[in-house]
Amino acid sequence: MLKISDITYSVEGRPLFEGATANIPAGHKVGLVGRNGTGKTTLFRLIRGELTLENGEISLPSNARIGGVAQEVPSSATSLLDTVLEADRERSNLLAEAETATDPMRIAEIHVRLADIDAWSAEARASAILKGLGFDTETQQLPCSDFSGGWRMRVALAGVLFAEPDLLLLDEPTNYLDLEGAMWLEDYLQKYPHTVIVVSHDRGLLNRAVGGILSLEDRKLSYFRGGYDQFVRQRTEQRAVVMAEARKQEERRAHLQQFVDRFRAQANKARQAQSRLKMLERMTPVSAYEDRKEQVFTFPAPEELSPPIVNLDDAAVGYGGPPVLQELNLRIDQDDRIALLGRNGQGKSTLAKLLADRLIAAEGKVTRAAKLRIGYFAQHQVDELEVDETPLQHLVRLRPEERPARLRARLAGFGLGADQADTVVDKLSGGQKARLSLLLATMDAPHLLILDEPTNHLDVESREALLRRSTSIPVR
Question: Which PROSITE patterns does the record match to this protein (predicted)?
């Protein structure tokens, strides 16, 4: 069991946890949810012992192994399959020792332990995991250096799944998976033999792959049984009860205070007024939940252009070599809402760059409306932000003529309040960086807004707000 007992932790004076407590039973699959910037990734670092608590304790059974996905698999000549096999350090160490051991007793112990951990089927298990994440048998023999960072992150995920730690911590694992890979991961996590805590803003995964939700809100942790939809219902019911109690108490306090104010100066009522005053002092306040504004995104409205705004006629595009995509024929009008689907590596981002005028067609014809403005949110655009600048400074650089109050209002329209506006980007959460990137992509009121994986770091409420906004962008 993972025990989180009365923990307190702050970042630069801002409390993330205050007396937070939770118990996760062994073998449970749990989704960790909370708004962007509340401290979900920080909690993982506290569990791993990378950060020091101010108060409280986090405990696990002795010798429990904690595993998570590394930031990036090294770009080495080691094959994908061998990289995953090496993730099980106990197996690798035992096999290496078996090559040099001379003591018959120790050799016997090694082989017993290898049998216990099913070492002889390791290659088949590792290969099956890689296949589930999109690597066929031939590809598994290629060196890691042949793959981009996103694909190597899949290899890192395969490695930690293969190692089967007692506590598996996954932070947004579906961000670098296609739809098929994400569905495979859901099924794998359901069958995982040990405890899993997964930070995810994928509502489908949180409904299908976990049996409990750990909610981080108001610097506290609360555990709910069931998937995400069940959690939302339970939380709504819980809040309704607390709010009703708070209103009832407020009415009772007002009634008592009214009596005190009216009769405390009258000698024949002074004792009763004093008694009610003491009742007010002894009354423990019921803490009502803070009212939370609905997540919104405020996109400026562009003027209307004559259709089509973009037209592809037998176009081909690539990166200087053979075309990645060819025979492209597509018409886009201003009121279109288009979802671009396909497996990883099939050219979705390449097509997005062509439409965004970031790549030039190698063949065919691309026609764009004369006054067309394009907003483009690239898949890795959050990595292109100036990490030592605040969101407000980003906007001041782009809009030096606008008053700071107007720029702050723009930031607030994307969920970046006063605190986030004056915090350097390096200290913002992934979701807060994504909101800033979305704001920068839409500031010029684009007629065509191209979003390449915009929801990777957004919390559930923000994802749904973006969906609502993207299906109702106005034209003036």
Answer: ABC_TRANSPORTER_1, ABC_TRANSPORTER_2
